[in-house]
Structure to design on (441 residues):
């Protein structure tokens, strides 16, 4: 029977549940830059919820759009049918992507976008008569979600190693473009990373180009510890993919919708991928939605190599693909980003965050500080006896003593404030982190 204080029925994802039950952290309301707990205490949101609430919390136009949709069209199937908002939204999103990427496949999360990208990449090569290409090359510390496809392409050991055989053809990963010996405390984007992209040549030598379908990378690794890369790195990766005919997939689930000062980081880096995955910021976290933006050459290959027009071109999709409530939320969110100039604001705020976060160098247990885009990673020295313990302590101290919600991956504190953050919000966040670090042991 359910007891008044029994909170074990909800098995929390990616959480030490027993520790949480001993000292829960409940969020009951959110507005602007703040969450509120059940006592009404305000908690500064240093991580945009989970890298997603880019427009800040409690945005009325988004809530009203969702409400209107719920009243007018609670659901419409997008298998064999559709609804106008799905088309309007796909056009808006495609218009933000590089030229030549005019098609959007909708799913409900970043993980599902990883599955969609893998399937579309493999099926594309089937369609064009190169079915021997099945390998998808990921990157060390890459995070593409928690489904089997996401963890297989991802490069985080703890996410992979408990689950038996994953997906054939997904075991190769490029090196993370990072060298702890020379790159600690780099401000902004590290440079001279081309050799890390050149490692792809080694995999070509090992497996043969004719077995490789695609390479998937995040413009910066978020959940893997906040590691940035640079324009020349991505351009080199694009050039090698072109040389051998591989698709290049950008997982922009975190970096999309303003985190790097642009609609997509692809624009920042002047690189046109073949597939861009998105989720999170597309609805500012207010409704579940994800998707893949698809290059015309891929879409056209499906349309022209699937036989008669009554044939389904891609056997993939979800009941809630392009759900009306999510589409309404996304359209209202994109209006806010445009009308409030939030991507441009985020670009300006990068330097503010950079200066503020690097002032933590020398604070207790700080081992490195990295700041790609409007985000930062503060890597802590791991407790040799209990890796991850200091990271968890940082969450608890931030919540209970500094009135802040922070995100941690292992022992790295990840900061990604909502894009509405002001200079004063950034200083409050850094002061809070300083307070947290002073209490760690
Ligand atoms: C780069 C990246 N890809 C995919 C995902 C998975 O998204 P979701 O949690 O919506 O499945 C995430 C989530 O953090 C992410 O950061």
């Amino acid at each position: 029977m359910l007891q008044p204080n029994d909170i074990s029925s909800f098995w929390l994802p990616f959480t030490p549940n027993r520790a949480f039950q001993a000292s829960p952290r409940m969020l009951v309301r959110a507005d602007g830059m703040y969450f509120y707990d059940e006592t009404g205490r305000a908690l500064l949101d240093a991580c945009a919820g989970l890298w997603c609430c880019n427009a800040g919390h409690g945005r009325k136009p988004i809530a009203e759009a969702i409400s209107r949709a719920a009243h007018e069209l609670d659901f419409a199937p997008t298998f064999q049918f559709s609804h106008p908002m799905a088309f309007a939204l796909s056009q808006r999103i495609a218009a933000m992507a590089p030229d030549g990427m005019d098609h959007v496949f909708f799913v409900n999360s970043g993980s599902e976008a990883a599955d969609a990208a893998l399937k579309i990449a493999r099926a594309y090569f089937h369609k064009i008569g190169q079915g021997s290409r099945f390998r998808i090359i990921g990157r060390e510390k890459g995070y593409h979600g928690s489904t089997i496809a996401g963890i297989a392409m991802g490069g985080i050991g703890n996410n992979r190693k408990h689950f038996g055989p994953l997906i054939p053809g997904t075991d190769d990963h490029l090196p993370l473009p990072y060298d702890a010996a020379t790159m600690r405390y780099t401000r902004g984007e590290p440079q001279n990373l081309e050799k890390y992209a050149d490692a792809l040549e080694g995999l070509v030598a090992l497996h043969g180009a004719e077995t490789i379908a695609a390479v998937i990378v995040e413009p910066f690794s978020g959940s893997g510890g906040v590691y940035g890369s640079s324009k020349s790195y991505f351009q080199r990766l694009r050039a090698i993919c072109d040389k051998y005919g591989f698709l290049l997939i950008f997982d922009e689930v975190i970096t999309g919708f303003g985190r790097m000062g642009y609609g997509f980081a692809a624009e920042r880096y002047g690189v046109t991928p073949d597939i861009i995955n998105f989720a999170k910021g597309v609805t500012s976290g207010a409704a579940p939605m994800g998707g893949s933006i698809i290059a015309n050459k891929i879409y056209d290959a499906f349309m022209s190599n699937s036989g008669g027009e009554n044939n389904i071109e891609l056997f993939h999709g979800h009941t809630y693909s392009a759900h009306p409530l999510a589409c309404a939320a996304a359209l209202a969110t994109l209006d806010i980003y445009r009308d409030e100039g939030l991507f441009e604001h985020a670009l300006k705020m990068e330097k503010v965050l950079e200066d503020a976060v690097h002032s933590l160098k020398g604070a207790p247990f700080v081992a490195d500080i990295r700041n790609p885009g409007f985000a930062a990673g503060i890597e802590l020295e791991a407790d040799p006896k209990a890796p991850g313990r200091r990271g968890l302590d940082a969450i608890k101290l931030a919540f209970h003593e500094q009135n802040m919600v922070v995100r941690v991956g292992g022992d790295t504190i990840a900061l990604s404030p909502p894009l509405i953050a002001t200079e004063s919000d950034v200083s409050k966040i850094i002061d809070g982190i300083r307070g947290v670090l002073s209490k760690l042991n």
About this structure: Residues 51, 109-111, 114, 143-145, 218, 222-223, 251, 253-254, 279, 290 surround pyridoxal-5'-phosphate (CB under 6 Å). DSSP finds 16 helices and 17 strands in the chain. The first strand starts at residue 29 and ends at 31.
